[in-house]
Amino acid sequence: MDPQEEPEPLSRDEAEVDEQEMLNRIAKNMRSAETRLANKELGEDTKQVQRDILQDLDRLIDQDQKSDQNPSSSLNDKNTSASQLGKNYQGKQSAQSRKQDGKKTENK
Length: 108
Prior knowledge:
Helices cover 80% and strands 0% of the residues. By secondary structure, it is mainly α. Helix 1 packs antiparallel against helix 2.
């Protein structure tokens, strides 16, 4: 690709698919980081997963800010997706906590 050429912007459908893939990757990496930390795996691999999460979140924020400048995109769809991601993660996290609390009670 010629360095002076800018890549074509993604169409709205492509951007939504890309965003969904990124949200899925963030969720997967958050679960992975959570598991690694629970297992006291504090090495470089865990740190890299955390950096990947931050990079993807930064990209989503950048995309959202750019879409704010483009009135044809739907901000509500993006907020819903991010909101659903957070709720799914929190729900899984609290379910795991309940399981662990149950195991602690059984062992006493």
